[in-house]
Amino acid sequence: MQDLRSTVLAIGLATVAFGAVAQVKVGIIAPFSGPFAHYGVLMKAGAEAYVASQGGKLGGQTVELIFRDEGAPNPANARNLAQELVVKDKVDYIGGFVFTPNAAAIAPVIQESKTPAVIFNAATSDITTKSDFYVRTSYTLWQVTVPLAQHVAKKGVKKAITAVTDYGPGIDAENAFKTEFAKQGGQVVESIRMPLSTTDFGPFAQRIKASGAQAVYVFLPGGPPNLGFVRAYQQNGLRQTGIEFFGTAETDEFDLQKFGDTALGLTTAFHYSAAHDSPANKAFVAAVAKQNKDAVANYATVGAWDGMYVIHKMIEATGGKRDGDKAITAAKALKWESPRGPVSIDPATRHITQNVYLRTVEKGAGGAMVNKEVQNFGAHVDHGLVK
Question: In sequence order, which residues have a C-beta less than 8 Å from that of residue 193 and are 6 or more positions away?
Fold first, then answer.
């Protein structure tokens, strides 16, 4: 991928207008600096690719995308950015958000201003309960973990261990796996929470190895932690001792080629794979590549692509006028064919209902690593809000 620092300098706090005079403004808050800056680059590519695929207009309205850098988990900064977008820039919609604390922090801003906010990534279940104006087009850890825990139990695993990063989504992931695995008759022998700043996963791998578990369920944020944990899993002989690896986004397409052969056979449950075989996904992959040759089709780009689809339909429903209540009512009724498969918005939770797939890392065409979908668990809601 191109140097992220130059990318950030290039976009800064800039606006991107698709047409001569913007009629609708969309603010996108994402990290464009720091260790998670790749999320911002990918979300930007996904959002711009969607607008470009529609000829630069959504619902007949010229659209301006305004990007703001959330950097890292920093709720106060996120709230300030949202206030600036609403008050100064007068945006009609907000999108983005990688970090749960940041997404949750803007709830009072969008509630008071009735500004619809579409979450492209942040995956903790209760975010959408914080404001009536949230819609989510990503996923939640409960949504993808519950069917995975059922699968692990059906494989005959009786004892498992969880190893998650110690912040909101990780705790959600841990709770989801423990709750469902217990329902299926399994036992979680230990729950490990790893600090967000962890770079050496060797000591945690040794704890997993000594636990007596037959499988480890893992949750890590994207980027370097994924590579570090998988390296520790392999180097400490967990695979050789029969401890199976199960996760969610740990083999994300952004990092996948960096793993090399160490990723082969790793199993995850997730809502999207770039290898998903459908016309809609092929069109999406091509559109992202056309927009930014250095971007990849992954859960960040598809979350932004579908997020812009939802915004598109809200613009159509309101005729381009600012009407948060009418926009959210329209979003609750949406069903469409996403690059990930058939999806809809659950009107009760305003969260996306979607298929969850069991994926295994294999070598595809030309020797490139792919997340091959080997089983479709069917459509799942957010089990964290519907229990």
Answer: 164, 165, 166, 170, 171, 174
Q: Is 212 exposed, middle or buried (0-12, 13-18, 19+ CB in 10 A)?
A: exposed
Domain boundaries, the chain: 4-139+276-347, 141-270+356-380
Predicted confidence (pLDDT) per residue in 50-104, tens digit: 999 999 999 999 999 999 999 999 999 999 999 999 999 999 999 999 999 999 9
CATH of domain 141-270+356-380: 3.40.50.2300
Q: With residue 104 as reference, give the H or E element that holds it.
A: helix 100-105
Closest CA to 208 of 178, 183, 175, 242: 242
Asked if residues 18 and 62 have their Cβ atoms less than 8 Å apart, the reply is yes
Segments of the chain with pLDDT less than 70:
1-22, 387
Decide if 4-139+276-347 and 141-270+356-380 have a common fold: yes
The token pair at 189 is: 């022998």
**Residue 48 is which amino acid?**
E
Structure tokens at 99: 């970090």
C-alpha–C-alpha distance, residues 84 and 68, integer Å: 10
Question: How far is the C-alpha of 122 from the C-alpha of 134, rounded, in Å?
Answer: 12
Residue type, 254: F
pTM over 0.85: yes
Tell me the CB-side half-sphere exposure of residue 211, using CA atoms within 13 A: 27
Nearest to residue 340, comparing CAs of 311, 294, 300, 293?
300
Contact between 296 and 288 (Cβ < 8 Å): yes
Q: What CATH number is given for 4-139+276-347 in this structure? A: 3.40.50.2300
Token duo for residue 68: 């703001």
Q: What is the pLDDT of residues 104-142, one digit of tens each?
A: 999 999 999 999 999 999 999 999 999 999 999 999 999
What are 298-307's pLDDT values in tens digits?
Answer: 999 999 999 9
Compute the distance between CA of residue 107 and CA of residue 329 in angstroms, rounded to an integer: 18
Are 226 and 198 in contact, with CB atoms under 8 Å apart?
Answer: no
